[in-house]
Write a structure and sequence with these properties.
EC number: 1.1.1.85
CATH superfamily of the largest domain: Isopropylmalate Dehydrogenase
Shape: globular
Bound molecules: nicotinamide-adenine-dinucleotide, 3-isopropylmalic acid, manganese (II) ion
CATH class of the largest domain: Alpha Beta
Organism: Flaviflexus ciconiae
Enzyme class: oxidoreductase
Number of domains: 2
Order of helices and strands: EHEHHEHEEEEHEHEHEHEEHHH
Catalytic activity: (2R,3S)-3-isopropylmalate + NAD(+) = 4-methyl-2-oxopentanoate + CO2 + NADH
CATH architecture of the largest domain: 3-Layer(aba) Sandwich
Number of helices: 11
Strand order of the largest sheet: 2-1-3-12-11-4-5-10-8-9
Structural class: alpha/beta
GO molecular function: 3-isopropylmalate dehydrogenase activity; magnesium ion binding; NAD binding
């Protein structure tokens, strides 16, 4: 018998709707497992900010960090200035909890509408660095609101930070198809780009079974559309990874399916699991959001916590639900379901 302390941050917009379904799937998968989850819900996000002006008070951060894992819906809302919650809450957690691996798997499910004429066998994982790069907040503005304003964001890339995420990506490749692609832009970003390139070459010597490849990020966006099956594991920096994973979501038929984990592999801090999508203010409160991204994020979370069989139950149920969708669409009677109806269908299969 094991107890897991889970911090839950439903957040804004569709966040609470999809998190509810993720928790339903989690509880179904853990039934009869001997594992008990103690959930603590944190009221953070736009409402809290409007009520109190608070984003993430120190004591709440401390409390969150004592949990075993975090499940987050989404944060951000057009009613407050862009960046307050994104930087002050989401990125604050990713940085302070040292989530240096931002794990974003992409898989194409048959029958899902995709802009690609021939999606083929898409099944890759982007390992996005999560604690450095252009997200580090290193920069500033001088002469603001004058014609001479200069705004800088300086990308931080440390040997330590690059090596640990590259090593993780190689390890992941050995559990998959042994193919690793580094994506960067070392023809222009000659400082950071070459640090990444040299690191992949050096660490790669420890993983002789893994074939490595390199693409400039602009070319990578082409291949994601023209030949996505060429990818197995992609390792890249924070901003390139952000952009590539939205594109990955689009080619696999929608951001409502894309799961992610912000992982601290060392286990020194709790890892955080969340759908790749945001708060989707345009469909919030209407039970229109697809909860599969969140449910699959819960599967990643259970795997991370060592509950591999329980994670598998969720994955099998999601795969079956996606099959049912494909069959219905092919038969000309596509399923029309609310957020919670999709969650219920997955739970029934678990
Ligand atoms: P978004 O992902 O919220 O929405 C983009 C489009 O995708 C919208 O049309 C939306 O309806 C659709 N969509 C998103 N999730 C869906 C789902 N589960 N099912 C069906 N359709 C879905 O991106 P945005 O509009 O750029 O951002 C909205 C807010 O969310 C912003 O404040 C942004 O900063 C924030 N955001 C937060 C996170 C996060 O918390 N991790 C991630 C991305 C964006
Ligand atoms: C994501 C989001 C975030 C990011 C934003 C909201 C800070 O786009 O999770 O992909 O850029 O990482
Ligand atoms: Mn993003």
């Amino acid at each position: 018998n094991r107890t897991i302390k889970l911090a839950v941050i439903p957040g804004d917009g569709i966040g609470p709707e999809v998190v509810a379904e993720g928790l339903k799937a989690m509880n179904a998968a853990l039934r009869d497992s001997g594992v008990t989850v103690e959930e603590t819900v944190f009221d953070l996000g736009a409402d809290r900010w409007h009520r109190t002006g608070e984003v993430l008070p120190d004591d709440e951060f401390e409390q969150i960090s004592t949990h075993d894992a975090i499940l987050l819906g989404a944060v951000g809302d057009p009613s407050l200035p862009s960046g307050i919650l994104e930087r002050g809450l989401l990125l604050k957690l990713r940085f302070a909890l040292d989530h240096y691996v931002n794990l974003r798997p992409s898989k194409y499910y048959r029958g899902v509408p995709t802009p690609l004429a021939n999606p083929g066998d898409i099944d890759f994982v982007v390992v996005r660095e999560g604690t450095e790069g252009l997200y580090a907040g290193n920069g500033g503005v001088v002469r603001q609101d004058t014609p001479h304003e200069i705004a800088t964001e300086v990308s931080i890339n440390t040997a330590y930070g690059v090596e640990r995420v590259v090593r993780y990506a190689f390890g992941l490749a050995t559990q998959r198809d042994n193919r690793l692609t580094l994506v960067h832009k070392h023809n222009v970003l000659v400082n950071a780009g070459h640090l990444w390139r040299r690191t992949v070459e050096r660490v790669g010597q420890e993983f002789p079974d893994v074939t490595t490849d390199y693409l400039h990020v602009d070319a990578a966006t082409i291949f994601l559309v023209t030949d996505p099956a060429r990818f197995d594991v992609i390792v890249t920096d924070n901003l390139f990874g952000d952009i590539l994973t939205d594109e990955a979501g689009a080619i696999t038929g929608g951001i409502g399916l894309a799961a992610s984990g912000n992982v601290n592999p060392d286990g020194a801090f709790p890892s955080m699991f969340e759908p790749v999508h945001g708060s989707a203010p345009d469909i919030a409160g209407q039970q229109k959001a697809d909860p599969i991204a969140t449910i699959s994020s819960v599967a990643l979370m259970l795997e991370h916590l060592g509950l591999v069989d329980e994670a598998k139950k969720i994955r099998v149920a999601v795969d079956a639900d996606m099959e049912e969708r494909a069959d219905a669409a092919e038969a000309g009677t596509p399923l029309v379901r609310t957020t919670s109806e999709i969650g219920d269908a997955v739970v029934a299969r678990i």
